[in-house]
């Protein structure tokens, strides 16, 4: 990379903070309960954290792990850690002790910051983490300090508020490592770079229409793709972050009303719980609320339910390996006069690439040739550009496989419509091949979501002696409903080809990740135990 000059400046999202401090020093940057930090105060805390890390011999290239919900320290880490050239490792708070231990050790983390709700878990594995030299307790719930180290505020106080210059010299240096869910073995560490994080944050501002007056509620975990880069995007625009420890519908609606929330991001499962709460309590929104959803293909019914209470839903699509969202279902004025369900059906598509992404296609994964733009022919979604990861940390083989043919391979099967909008049909591992026919689980799920008794649903292939495999639906029901399995199956038969209708139905709660994705692999493992199909 060239050195900074009259016609070049290194791109890093950390720089967004200093610009907003200059423009909005006394504006609320961060709100958490009764606590408010102006942009000037936010920057002071970032400098203190950065200087305290340096005092503890943390510097360029070192890894710093945070196990923390969406509270201010998690947000501060997104600036202080990369500011000194170190690498932030944000860890899923719902992982087991063994999974957390693997990530801390594999990432080579030298410091671990843990909220005291999860501190005991970290303390139980500390003897197996010889590379860690610094532990810090984030005392948010109470004053307990499960880890052998200071509390967060004391650690901050040990650092000077003197300004810290960005220690990064190459914008493709690693800024964060985000570990995947590990459904196909051990989690893989996805390496983000400063340039990609900067550009993806700009993309969020453009696509989600963030303004300086926006008030953003943190319903999306910051540990997930660094909050889809909104950790940096909201700051870039000088908007306001509203932190939220736990995602509970009642609390969400209370904060929306009391703090004047204008924007939030959420997986479809969060929208399901929000719409159910609104329906049960006859609630509608009093102001404009923009919601970006991603993480799983949302059913049109889910979108329609949320828009019926006054929200506007924007569907995006991406993966951890592309810094979160890569495409957006950009609305077209010609769709304005369609009926509500048809609008929701169009909004449920994964759409077109972000302005800052551009490169995205649906191809035959063997030949790498684009599939016909007919809305019917399935292929794999592939992507490339500035917001593709550098690779998997310490895993060259998996990196090369993901980047084969000069594209990042998503593993998602989709069709390309004649208007160049992409629509996901399934994950490659989820597609059902029954008697030689391909059946999309997403298509079945979208139909089931229109049944009035269905709250949540997941469809997977299960073994069948005649057809090889057939669809099975796992359904979480609306409160107070008790449909029979045969009623559900018959409902599908009236709306789908009979061979696509689920042959089996099971009622109960669905296993989920911390970001709201249904863990289909757990359902597959149970159903395919003793059979030959690859369940991962």
UniProtKB/TrEMBL annotation:
One of its GO terms (molecular function) is ligase activity. The keyword Membrane does not apply. GO terms for biological process: fatty acid metabolic process. InterPro entries: AMP-bd_C (IPR025110), AMP-bd_C_sf (IPR045851), AMP-binding_CS (IPR020845), AMP-dep_synth/lig_dom (IPR000873), ANL_N_sf (IPR042099). PROSITE patterns: AMP_BINDING. Keywords: Fatty acid metabolism, Ligase, Lipid metabolism. Residues 443-517 form the AMP-binding enzyme C-terminal domain. Residues 18-393 form the AMP-dependent synthetase/ligase domain. The keyword Lipid metabolism applies. Belongs to the ATP-dependent AMP-binding enzyme family. This is Fatty-acyl-CoA synthase.
